[in-house]
Amino acid sequence: MQETEIISRRSGPVVVNRIRYGLIVLFYASVGITYPTNSPGQNIAYLVGISLMLLYALIFSLWNRKSMVPAWFSRSMLLADILVLFSTMAPGALRDLYGAFEMIQSHVLYLIYIIYIFNAAFFLSRRFVYIATTLSASCYVIVQYLCVQSGIVLSMEPTKTAKYEFALPNEITKILFIFACGYIVSQMMGVLLRLYAYSNETREVAENSVAELEERQSQLEHAADTIGANARGFQEFSDQFGRLVQDQSNSFTSIGQTMNSVSMGSLEVANAVHAQKDKLEVLDRKGSQFDKLLKDINESTNEVNRRMSESARTSGSMVSQVNNLNAVFDRIRNSFDSVNDATGILTEVAERTNLLALNAAIEAARAGEQGRGFAVVAQEVGKLASSSQENASHIATQIEQVHGQLQEAVRIVSETVNLTRDQSRVFSETNDYFQGLQSLIDKQRNADAEFERTLDELRELIDTLEKQAESQKKEARDVLANIEGFRYIHGSVGEQAQKLQE
Q1: How much is the pLDDT for 12?
Q2: CA-based nearest residue to 429, from 299, 328, 300
Q3: What is the fold, at CATH topology level, of the domain defined by 253-501?
Q4: Which of 106, 111, 158, 481 could connect to 165 by a Cys-Cys bridge, CB 3.0–4.6 Å?
Q5: pLDDT at 1 over 50
């Protein structure tokens, strides 16, 4: 727990307890003044309530000296203060009409409820402020109700002659004012809590700044140690300066000897380079031939790519045609399904016709007046025959559609065959181009063989040149080493001279 939090949690309840002592003194003085006019029961209620407040106020003071009082105890004490005030007002409101008149007219007791709401703010909890406000308003409403029960009249427009009649809007305003005070105090608490959080953030920033300053102080101490080390290094530099000058003199002598050896090696290298020049001319001609072959190969490869692209497009067309063929076959299958449906209808008609024919035969056998039923049956047979004719026409139409679709399928298959032939031709031409490419590759191989022989001759010359160059390289390394030594010495001398000037 932070130190500031301990201070806030202790100081708030302590201030409230001090205010409580002041109210206790005020209550005792009020009881002493009104003691003769109050009833014995009312005086006893006043003294018990005030003494109870004094008791837990003393308990809080003793507890706070030893350790921090829990928050729940401090808040419970404030709620007890509100209830004690209510317990002193309730007997007065129930005593008689005059006592109720004094309770509802007392502005001091009403203001004490407001004071308790402001005391709740010292506990740094907006929720507790709302609890104290609600309890205060509830107690005051109950007191008003008890006053009404004792004979006080609350009306919208009280008459001036009625002594115990009060304006109802004024009493409602008092209750609303209690809630308004609670809301205002809670808003003030919000501002105070935000300021408290800001102070904590400021404290953290200050602590971080102190830590950063300590770190920078450590860096400065390290820099001071580094400066001391540099001073010691400067002393060592003074000792090395004389040795550097002597080393520079020796390096100049070695450079002169090495340059003589390099000049002799350069003559031998020049002769070897002259012999290499002739072979390089031959290599250049071979390279031209090789370049021409590569161009031919490139053109052939481009042609192959074009042919292969054409083959891919042809294959794509063939796939599309095959898909169309599948769609046609699907339509044929659907047409045959329709034919099957029509056949089912014809079968049903045939069955019904047979049944009616049987009925007609029976009617014909009976003769007489009942022969008229045969005419009805004959009429039904005619209708069924007409239905059979329509179904037959439907079947014929379906068959014609199937025939046309089969012709379409044959045409698509023919186109597919033609596309397949074209594709075969394209692949055949592609094969011919590949054969031509193989011929070019053979020529390239022959040229490579001749080129390799030329390289062998060149390799022998390079070996001779490498042996001579190796000796020259060694001497060149010596020259470079001496030169680097000279540069280092010269640079060191310049730096040391500049430091001495500074």
Answers
A1: 78
A2: 300
A3: Helix Hairpins (1.10.287)
A4: 158
A5: no
